[in-house]
Amino acid sequence: MIHSGDMPDALVSSLTGARPMRPLPDLAQDLIPRPGEPVPRDIALALLRRQLGRIQSRVQEAFEAHALSGLTAARALAELTDGLIHAIHAYTLAQVAPDGSGERAFTAAEPPFVLAATGGYGRGVLGPFSDIDLLFLSDSPLGPRGRRAVEFMLYLLWDLGLKVGHATRSIRECLVDARADATIQTALLDSRFIAGERAVFDRFDAAFSLARQEWGVGQFLTSKRAERTARHKRYGDSPYLVEPHIKEGRGGLRDIQTMYWLARYAFGVQRMPELVGEDSPGGGLLTAREARAIRRAWDFLWTVRFHLHYVTGRAEERLTFDLQPVVGARMGYTRHGKQDGVERFMKHLFLTARDVVRLSRLLEPAIERAALGSPAVTKAQDPALATIGIAMADGKLLFAPDKDIAADPAVMLRLLRAARDRGLELHPLAQRALIRSAPRAQSLRDDPAAAALFLDLLTGKESHRWVRVLNEVGFLSRYIPDWARIVGLMQFDTYHVFTVEEHTIEAIGVLNQLEQQELEEAVPVASELVGQLQSRRALYVATLLHDIAKGRGGDHSELGAELAHEICPRLGLSQEETETVSWLVLNHLLVSQTAFKRDIDDPKTILDIAEVVQSPERLRLLLVLTVADMRAVGPKVWNGWKATLLRELYWRVAEVLAGGLSVPERDVRVARAKQAAAAMMEELPKEAVENFLALGYPGYWLSFDPETHARHAGLIREAEATGAPLTVSTRVLEARAVTEVTVYVTDHPGLFSRIAGALAVAGASIVDARIHTMTNGRALDTFWVQDAQGGAFDSPHKLARLSVLIEQALSGRLNLEQEIRKVRREPARLRAVQVPGRVVIDNHASNTHTVIEMNGRDRPGLLHDMTAAISEQGLQIASAHITTYGVRAVDVFYVKDVFGLKVENERKLTSLRAALLSALTPANGEAGAA
């Protein structure tokens, strides 16, 4: 037992080679200078606070000086805390028995109690701000003196500011409560003697060991699995979430602890290396390499956890965006090549989480088999399965006991195909065998039969499920070496929810959903087209490879297209299929970037994309791949408005490729639009219809459908009849998940900017806009907006406030700059994500307009600032295309000068670029959510 702190110092120096810390004072001697004469409580509390401060500061100093790793620091902190608790226990006994009798003060009527640690503290590891779990244990229920001692101790601990979890139980109560509650079983499993009468603890330990044998490991295993499933559902069922929970998330510390609990319950082991070797419990459940991997993961995660606690000053367990660069830097991760230090750190973390998941799947079935006996393995009834070495156990598939996977590694793929075709699960022992045999996948790289099996799994039923299995057991990284480079690779932004390989598997899952018609309502066009594809295999392989070159620097689409030429022939694709895959990977962003960043009403936009696509089949493939890619990014990325833009772009390009309307003369198209609009306005007087048809310039008639034109006609007629200087109309479009805001007002410079500012103050995010000046000098501007959650802006009181704010902004009664600053700032965790400002001015994307594309950090009023800068440069905005990727805003404007021409003067372009870059930079470094 530790009294002065000498033992942890020795532990530290032996494990790290560091110079031992100075010994801590003998606290018990200070608290009880003479037997039976403890110092007053206030003095004792001051001494204890000083000692606690020494403990915490010394461990923190050693840890931050890199003299201690996370696991060593956790053990040192627990052992030093033992010394503190031991001193408090001794002081408590001196107070309860002031005659100096101490433990002797407890008799048969007053049974002695034992102070034991439970939980993480019981395992001998403690975080800087973790709870201290204590068990006051006795042979029989405590008497008055014992209860007084417990109360005295707890109040001391609470006054020290420690978070204490505690229970007071007799040995019998422990067993009764544990039998009914696996959580209590787990806590007692970690129990460790600290102070008191050791014989009492030994009697409990023996009784609990016998009780565990009687209860059996089966019930404990079932309970831990259910607990883990619920925990993963709450904190993240993927080990690759970009803001992981270090303690409770999948692949986190709790999963390692679960492995330890199962091994401890079944075999009584204290450390994982005890499971190594033929003579170990269970007959060698782990190899030495696997035991070292568990230790490395345990140590790494504890190191991350210690940094999290110290950085935040609390028991923070979630590694949010704002903390990732800080923790990564503290752990020594710096930029290497094209990869930032934070991305290197997070990749290490994700690879560690992946290892924990694999080790759990490897160890858990082995513990179950060793503790409960081997499952009844039966020969597969299907002769074809029996022939290739596949058997059954508990209704699940696994390898036959005599199957040599090393001699036939392709059987790993055959096992998965058999499970898929027969609708059966893989036995846990099969997953254990897959993990251990995964390195042999590299021998299959040039095997045509293996390639056919892999393609069958990739393109067959529920293919995302089987690709995920191949990824999680490590097969895929060995079979396709380039895949290994994207495993655990994250992009430090708030747009992507998953790591690159997990996003890819999610995209394959979306393809599965499309083919099963599960997304017919959300994406009807893609759902219809997916059944018409002639190059289905190419589509699935392109989805698998579309992000394969991320993290290498350069354009990942171009690099990925080159890799596809190398990978596809190995997978058994024909030359034609290989070319299709390479083209899809090269252009997989074409449709989305065009739909969200270009004016699809501009004929040149449609002609440009048609020239790249060239065939209806490639257009179909590209649209389906785009939908899969976008929906796999995260739950908040897809919405009805984006679906509408993609659908409209598809039909316009398809029309050109079909040779029907190959973008006829502008006047013809305008005439047709006017005819369709007039047909929708039959109830209006002929004079009113003619007046309205004379108001719009050609661009207006090509921007809306006939129904919208008719609605505009009614709005304008009413405004003119009443003489209203301003008309604001709102319409919720539930199918598109947007609210349409139409503003009819006298046009003037800066109008768009002021409306955008008012919308920002109202809390509305603009997703698209159409700006039109009519022949009568009035503006008819249409904005499509969403709320902060990416849904329609539909609350009645918010819509009313929005109209009022627009009126106040246009009348000058609203100080936009001041009001925008009041808009709620974004969460701190998002502020760490940096987006460098970029302005691209393009005079080739449109025949009639200069196209300005701006990338920057989103914030309240960003659109107001940018459009104000454009207006101040004397330019007119014809249309705006607003897209947000997490905290990155990508806004595109089609503009002309005051003469209605493109901006081509170099001096003017230089001035424009400088003004826009200035607008992208937030004043005083402020940033917030738009």
UniProtKB/TrEMBL annotation:
<dbReference type="Pfam" id="PF01966">
    <property type="entry name" value="HD"/>
</dbReference>
<feature type="region of interest" description="Uridylyltransferase">
    <location>
        <begin position="1"/>
        <end position="384"/>
    </location>
</feature>
<keyword id="KW-0808">Transferase</keyword>
<dbReference type="InterPro" id="IPR010043">
    <property type="entry name" value="UTase/UR"/>
</dbReference>
<feature type="domain" description="ACT">
    <location>
        <begin position="740"/>
        <end position="821"/>
    </location>
</feature>
<comment type="function">
    <text>Modifies, by uridylylation and deuridylylation, the PII regulatory proteins (GlnB and homologs), in response to the nitrogen status of the cell that GlnD senses through the glutamine level. Under low glutamine levels, catalyzes the conversion of the PII proteins and UTP to PII-UMP and PPi, while under higher glutamine levels, GlnD hydrolyzes PII-UMP to PII and UMP (deuridylylation). Thus, controls uridylylation state and activity of the PII proteins, and plays an important role in the regulation of nitrogen metabolism.</text>
</comment>
<keyword id="KW-0378">Hydrolase</keyword>
<dbReference type="InterPro" id="IPR003607">
    <property type="entry name" value="HD/PDEase_dom"/>
</dbReference>
<dbReference type="Pfam" id="PF01909">
    <property type="entry name" value="NTP_transf_2"/>
</dbReference>
<dbReference type="InterPro" id="IPR002934">
    <property type="entry name" value="Polymerase_NTP_transf_dom"/>
</dbReference>
<dbReference type="InterPro" id="IPR043519">
    <property type="entry name" value="NT_sf"/>
</dbReference>
<dbReference type="InterPro" id="IPR002912">
    <property type="entry name" value="ACT_dom"/>
</dbReference>
<protein>
    <recommendedName>
        <fullName>Bifunctional uridylyltransferase/uridylyl-removing enzyme</fullName>
        <ecNumber>2.7.7.59</ecNumber>
        <ecNumber>3.1.4.-</ecNumber>
    </recommendedName>
</protein>
<dbReference type="GO" id="GO:0008773">
    <property type="term" value="F:[protein-PII] uridylyltransferase activity"/>
</dbReference>
<dbReference type="InterPro" id="IPR045865">
    <property type="entry name" value="ACT-like_dom_sf"/>
</dbReference>
<dbReference type="InterPro" id="IPR013546">
    <property type="entry name" value="PII_UdlTrfase/GS_AdlTrfase"/>
</dbReference>
<keyword id="KW-0548">Nucleotidyltransferase</keyword>
<dbReference type="Pfam" id="PF08335">
    <property type="entry name" value="GlnD_UR_UTase"/>
</dbReference>
<dbReference type="InterPro" id="IPR006674">
    <property type="entry name" value="HD_domain"/>
</dbReference>
<feature type="domain" description="HD">
    <location>
        <begin position="500"/>
        <end position="622"/>
    </location>
</feature>
<keyword id="KW-0460">Magnesium</keyword>
<keyword id="KW-0677">Repeat</keyword>
<comment type="similarity">
    <text>Belongs to the GlnD family.</text>
</comment>
<dbReference type="Pfam" id="PF24931">
    <property type="entry name" value="ACT_ACR9_3rd"/>
</dbReference>
<keyword id="KW-0511">Multifunctional enzyme</keyword>
<feature type="domain" description="ACT">
    <location>
        <begin position="851"/>
        <end position="930"/>
    </location>
</feature>
